[in-house]
TrEMBL record:
Keywords: Decarboxylase, Lyase, Pyrimidine biosynthesis. GO terms for molecular function: orotidine-5'-phosphate decarboxylase activity. Pathway: Pyrimidine metabolism; UMP biosynthesis via de novo pathway; UMP from orotate: step 2/2. Residues 12-231 form the Orotidine 5'-phosphate decarboxylase domain. SUPFAM superfamilies: Ribulose-phoshate binding barrel. This is Orotidine 5'-phosphate decarboxylase.
Length: 244
């Protein structure tokens, strides 16, 4: 049976469980398990609850899990960590892609998709310059994203994390099947917080993003369900054919 457009939109939405403890996470799981397709577990919650939170999400909701730990170390250490975490059947696992071709090739057909982080969405030109990034990349962050996306694909990653501003160029370079997960999502009128390279849900999906990560604008809203509905409406609109 063909999915309706609302279900397709829901499955593209990842809710960021950036909360301090398991009880708070469970509250959001109860509230949103039928409204999003995936839950992101980041450093804060993982350090508090450990791998049990992965099991809880899987068993109580059936939703996908994006374990966003941004693993970064020497290749052998990162690879060992990926093998360890794959045992918990996470659907997506983020790493900083190394200059090491085919490192993750054995994950190509497994249950866990390795996702390379390109340039964090809080970074802009002044921040990149301060970090010592070459001017040719700092003044043109898209160029840096494309370079790191290429490294991610060469390393065997199934996709990358990038802003909605860069996803169209990534898809053009690396193919439509290369997964793009996009944070830095804001509805019009939302506060940007510490994010710099932001897009609306409509813009990101129209540009080619496969999944959108949304956290604060839902968590901090007086009526989170209303924000979710607005996001899903924008995703659905972008998915309809002949939309400009």
């Amino acid at each position: 049976m063909k999915e309706n457009i609302y279900d397709v939109a829901k499955n593209k939405l990842i809710f960021a469980l950036d909360v301090p403890d398991l009880n708070t996470a469970k509250k959001w799981l109860r509230l949103l398990s039928t409204k999003v397709g995936c839950f992101k577990i980041g450093l804060q919650l993982f350090l508090e609850a450990g791998t049990q939170v992965i099991k809880i999400v899987k068993e109580t909701t059936g939703n996908k899990v994006f374990l966003d730990l941004k693993l970064h170390d020497i290749p052998s250490t990162v690879l060992a960590a990926c093998h360890q975490l794959q045992k918990y059947q996470v659907d997506f696992l983020s790493v900083f892609p190394p200059c090491y071709p085919h490192l993750f090739s054995e994950f190509q057909t497994g249950p866990t998709k390795i996702i390379g982080v390109t340039v964090l969405t809080y970074l802009d030109t002044p921040s990149l310059l301060a970090l010592g990034i070459k001017e040719e990349f700092a003044y043109n962050p898209i160029k840096l994203v494309l370079r790191r996306a290429q490294l991610a694909k060469e390393a065997g990653c199934k996709g990358i994390v990038c802003s909605g501003q860069e996803v169209k160029q990534v898809k053009n370079l690396l193919g439509q099947e290369f997964i793009a997960i996009t944070p830095g999502i804001r509805l019009k009128g939302n506060q940007a917080y510490d994010q710099k390279r932001i897009t609306t849900p409509y813009e990101a999906i129209k540009n080619g993003s496969d999944y959108l990560v949304v956290g604060r604008i839902i968590r901090l809203a007086p009526k989170p369900e209303q924000v979710i509905e607005r996001i899903l409406e924008e995703i659905s609109l972008a998915l309809r054919p002949n939309q400009v």
